[in-house]
UniProtKB/TrEMBL annotation:
Gene3D superfamilies: Vaccinia Virus protein VP39. This is SAM-dependent methyltransferase. InterPro entries: Methyltransf_25 (IPR041698), SAM-dependent_MTases_sf (IPR029063). GO terms for molecular function: methyltransferase activity. Pfam families: Methyltransf_25 (PF13649). One of its GO terms (biological process) is methylation. Transmembrane segments: none annotated. Keywords: Methyltransferase, Transferase. Residues 67-160 form the Methyltransferase domain. It comes from the Bacteria.
Length: 245
C-alpha cells in the first residue's frame, strides 16, 4: 500500500522507520470519507509469509520472471520473492518506506509514484507487475486507472502480467433493506479520500481507488489486457491477473 506524497510529512515512512528502530507499537491512524478513523499498526507492513492473507500468498505463488513490486511498503513481498530467487525491483512513493526496504535487504529499491514508471533502453521489461494490499488502489481514480494501464503496457514483456488486488466496497452503501444507495452526481463510489496521521502529524490528502470487478474488467480489456479473476475472499477483495497480449 502506498500513498501519494508531497514534500510534507510522510506518516507511513515515519512509522516504519520507528518500527525498525524498536518502536514496535508504532501505529498510523487512517482517516477517510467512508469510515470511522482506523488504526493501522506499522507491524502489519512487516508480516511474514504465513501472516499474509491468502490472496497475497496466492499472488506470490503466481509471480514469474522479473518482478516489479509497486507500493512495496516495508518490502514484505519483495523479500519473500527474493528468498525464492526472483529478481525484484520494489517501488514506493514514501521515502521512509524506501529507506526501510534498503535497510531490510531489498536489493533494488526506487522511490517514486506509479505514474513515473518508464521503460528505459538500458532496463529490461518485467514479466510481473505486483500490486498487493488493495494495490490497484494506488492509481487513485478511474482516470488514474486508465492512465496506469496504458503506462504499464510497455513495461511488460509480451504475455507479461499484472497481479493486483482490489475490492468492491459497494456494501458500504447498503441501506437497512440491503439495497444500494449511491449519489449519482458524486464520483464513482469506489474512489475514497484518505489522509494518514502519525504522532499527531498528518500527511497530505490523497485518493485511493477500490475498483469493483466490472470496472477492472472493462478498463483492462479496453486497454488491451486479457482479464482473469484468480481468487477472492469473504471481504469482497479479489486477486486479478491482467495479461498483456
Amino acid at each position: 500500500m502506498t500513498t501519494p506524497m508531497a514534500s510534507t510529512f510522510d506518516p507511513i515512512g515515519a512509522a516504519l522507520l520507528d518500527y525498525v528502530a524498536g518502536q514496535t507499537a508504532a501505529t498510523i491512524t487512517v482517516h477517510s470519507n467512508v469510515a470511522e478513523d482506523e488504526p493501522l499498526p506499522a507491524k502489519y507492513f512487516f508480516r511474514t509469509l504465513w501472516e499474509m492473507p491468502a490472496l497475497e500468498r496466492t499472488a506470490l505463488d503466481q509471480c514469474r520472471g522479473r518482478v516489479l513490486d509497486l507500493g512495496a511498503g516495508a518490502g514484505a513481498h519483495a523479500l519473500e520473492l527474493q528468498s525464492r530467487g526472483f529478481q525484484v525491483k520494489a517501488v514506493d512513493v514514501s521515502p521512509g518506506a524506501a529507506q526501510v526496504m534498503q535497510q531490510r535487504g531489498v536489493q533494488e529499491v526506487a522511490c517514486h509514484d506509479v505514474f513515473e514508471l518508464s521503460t528505459r533502453h538500458d532496463e529490461a521489461r518485467y514479466d510481473t507487475l505486483l500490486m498487493l494490499m488493495n494495490g490497484l488502489g494506488v492509481v487513485g481514480t478511474l482516470e488514474g486507472l486508465e492512465r496506469f494501464l496504458a503506462l504499464a503496457h510497455p513495461l511488460l514483456v509480451p504475455g507479461g502480467q499484472i497481479l493486483a488486488t482490489s475490492a468492491d466496497i459497494s456494501y458500504l452503501y447498503e441501506d437497512e433493506d440491503g439495497a444500494l444507495v449511491f449519489d449519482l452526481n458524486a464520483p464513482y463510489y469506489g474512489q475514497v479520500d484518505y489522509q494518514m496521521s502519525y504522532q499527531e502529524q498528518t500527511g497530505p490528502a490523497f485518493h485511493w481507488l477500490f475498483a469493483d470487478p466490472t470496472i477492472v474488467q472493462d478498463y483492462a480489456e479496453a486497454a488491451g489486457y486479457e482479464v482473469e479473476f484468480v481468487d477472492e475472499d469473504e471481504n469482497q477483495q479479489f486477486l486479478v491477473r491482467l495479461t498483456r497480449h
